[in-house]
Amino acid sequence: MRSARVTRLLPLLLAALLHTPAASSHAQSPTMDIYWIDVEGGGATLVIAPTGESMLVDTGWPRPEGRDARRIVETMREAGLEKLDYMLITHFHTDHVGSLAALDGMIPIDRFLDHGGETEERNQQWRDIYLEVAGDARMVAAAGDTMRLGDVDVKFISSNMELLDETLDGGGPNPHCDGAEHKPAASPENQRTLGALFSFGRFSFLNLGDLDWDMEMRLSCPVNRLGTVTLYQTSRHGAFDGAGAPAHLWAISPQVVVFNNGPRKGITAPHMYERAAAIPGVEGIWQTHLALESPGHNTAEDMIANFEDTDDCQAHWLRTSVSADGRFTVTNGRNGYSRTYTAR
């Protein structure tokens, strides 16, 4: 419960944190590290700055015996973390916030970030749990807000149905918008997603949670507001019917794509993987799971962290380690296989 720790936390405004790095229990490292923790098609992405500050984006499902929370804690300990500086909840769907209460009972969490909006009745229990856990340590981020995670810059791209209203370096008119397909909005809560761009030197990592096709098109057409990114975590776990608009993907032109999919969630049809593979200039595609419903349409086996269905899954992670000179290495926790890239 938050009440057990509230006396050592102050109710801080986001703006007050822009130049105030949090103390961290993690030893400093020469790299920025990103872990995709396997939560069977949910969201749980851990970002650790070279100076040691940490942010977990989402918590996975509410499974018996705290399965996803335990997997998160195990990964944190492997990374040398004893606590979380920031817990960011992209939106209040079960697969993104479901294990928060269990996680809060296992590790200290200093501060919480969310989109600040309401939600539909079917999601309300998860928002209520979040508000109880976060207490006075809660902060709300709006689209366009910025903060520092140690020496990593974080810019919030989407929040509560609003989008960044400026064009970042490298952005501009998007030629891929001509004749591009538009789709109706998905669930309102997906559209409320708190999405973020993490930047460290030349390297950038885009995590837009479950932001849908309609919002992607608004973000990238007729003007691409983001420019290009180095590494992209697929929206909606790679379910590229309700997300993954080609005009958006072609505009942001990621060098490397990570599918945080599950064995039967995310890549459930051939075109979903093939669309990522067709992004101009893409150099590597990695998956947290073999897509069992799309055989023959997966990346190379060495670049897939888990092959089993959920009941037998070993929960191996993927990790990206980013150096200050722009080189970054993606490693598969299952087999130790890695590839090194250089940010453009």
CATH topology tier name: Metallo-beta-lactamase, Chain A
Query: What structural category characterises the helix and strand content?
Result: alpha/beta
Q: What would the average pLDDT be, to the nearest integer?
A: 93
- End-to-end separation in angstroms reads 44 Å
Taking all Cα atoms into account, the compactness measure Rg is 18 Å
Major sheet: 9 strands, mixed
Q: What's the SSE pattern?
A: EEEHEHHEHEEEEEHEEHEEHEHEEEE
Any idea what the CATH superfamily is called?
Answer: Ribonuclease Z/Hydroxyacylglutathione hydrolase-like
Helix content: 10-25%
Task: Note the overall shape.
Answer: globular
Structure in words:
α6 packs across α7 (246-252). Residues 1-23 have low confidence and may be disordered. A nine-stranded mixed sheet has the order 6-5-4-3-2-1-17-18-19, with helices on one face. The radius of gyration is 18 Å and the shape is globular. With 344 residues, it is of the alpha/beta class. It has eight helices and 19 strands. The protein is 17% helix and 24% strand. The chain has one domain: Ribonuclease Z/Hydroxyacylglutathione hydrolase-like (Metallo-beta-lactamase, Chain A, 4-Layer Sandwich), CATH 3.60.15.10. The protein has helices spanning 67-78, 94-97, 100-104, 124-134, 188-191, 213-220, 246-252, 270-277, and strands at 32-36, 45-48, 54-57, 84-88, 109-114, 138-140, 146-149, 152-159, 162-163, 172-173, 195-200, 203-207, 223-224, 231-233, 256-259, 284-287, 318-322, 327-332, 338-342.
